[in-house]
């Protein structure tokens, strides 16, 4: 069956040569490692780590966003795999853990196809994350409150501080089921990630996660700038105000009406 890194010894537990020996970009090896360790920032993993999030897949909105769902089982993932010439029978012919799946494919494909498999899996997940970002504002489900935030400045620190203020506002309002939405992809990614990081904004991210623990459920949603116009406009107006804040300015009403009309 397999050759080189796909040798039968590579499927033995504790032997990580099927990842370490793969001739793929470093970030793809890191991705494969995270899959095998079960630390992908999927909604199901966040849920398992006691984060109060709704774990429904944002792509199909039908199943929990588990590792294997986002990598293989979601319709979006299947469409991505169908674009490759890799043998679907091997890719889909395993029903078990994500680590066992990768070991199975490493053993079953030759080196070149296996490396292509890793790259597609990594890119596929990025595509799914990007495609689940809406370009328009959408209302939350019944009983859930959505709060949009924007830092006005193109910096992660501004974005994450705005996110903390937004979640504090929701906490004071007494709402229990919350969607926190913004257009800063890196901030949303860090909020979704169950691991702590050492970036400059990590302490604020930690504050937000701590605040989120008091809600019944919280999810973090990325929206494109075009779907975050009200929050963006308010943030810009606040930047230019002497008080650093604005209170229901009339200039956002046309934007509100346009966004509401688009979804009504
Ligand atoms: Zn799905």
Automatic annotation (TrEMBL):
Domain Reverse transcriptase zinc-binding: 13-81
GO molecular function: nucleic acid binding; RNA-DNA hybrid ribonuclease activity
SUPFAM superfamilies hit by this protein: Ribonuclease H-like (SSF53098)
Domain RNase H type-1: 150-237
Chain segments annotated as coiled-coil in the UniProt record: none
UniProt cross-references to InterPro entries, sorted A to Z: RNase_H-like_dom_plant (IPR044730), RNase_H-like_EbsB-rel (IPR052929), RNaseH-like_sf (IPR012337), RNaseH_domain (IPR002156), RNaseH_sf (IPR036397), RVT-Znf (IPR026960)
Family matches, as Pfam families: RVT_3, zf-RVT
Transmembrane segments: none
Protein name: RNase H type-1 domain-containing protein
Organism (species): Buddleja alternifolia
